[in-house]
Amino acid sequence: MSSTAGRSRTRERAPIPPDGVPQRSEVGARLRALTGFDFTLAGGVVANERFFGSMARGHFHAVRFVRHPAVPLYTPEPDVVHDVLGHGIHLAHPQFADLYRRSGRRRCESRTRTCCR
To answer: How far apart are CA 31 and CA 90, in angstroms?
Structure first.
């Protein structure tokens, strides 16, 4: 399969609603069925150890707010569109989901053994 075909298939499988702002719980439920990944609520910036430890266990932190229209191009924190739409497409593909898990595990191994518990 070509990489273009793989990207197209992933985009088609991605659990992103076509008619509104993607909701963490809705997309997470569909991701669980596809790759075993799920979204977990982030109230804002998440510490690296917690973020990567969660990824190692198949959870991706996502916020529930949309960036303010006064600053549409930048915010110091990602918004739900970035988290759920941007990462949700990758997490719908088994190889990308595995890469996210491996990245989380490797980060934990390189920093401390406690972040992945």
So the answer is: 10
Query: In whole angstroms, what is the distance from residue 92 CA to residue 32 CA?
Result: 9
Q: What is the pLDDT of residues 58-109, one digit of tens each?
A: 999 988 888 878 877 777 778 887 888 788 888 988 999 999 999 999 998 8
For residue 103, report the phi and psi dihedrals to the nearest 5 degrees: -60, -45
Structure tokens at 44: 């804002």
Q: Name all contacts of 62-70 with Cβ < 8 Å and 24+ positions apart.
A: 62/24, 62/87, 64/23, 64/24, 66/21
CB contact set of 41 (below 8 Å; sequence gap of 6+):
24, 61, 62, 63, 64
pTM equals: 0.76
Greatest CA separation for the chain = 43
Distance between CA atoms of residues 19 and 30, nearest Å: 16
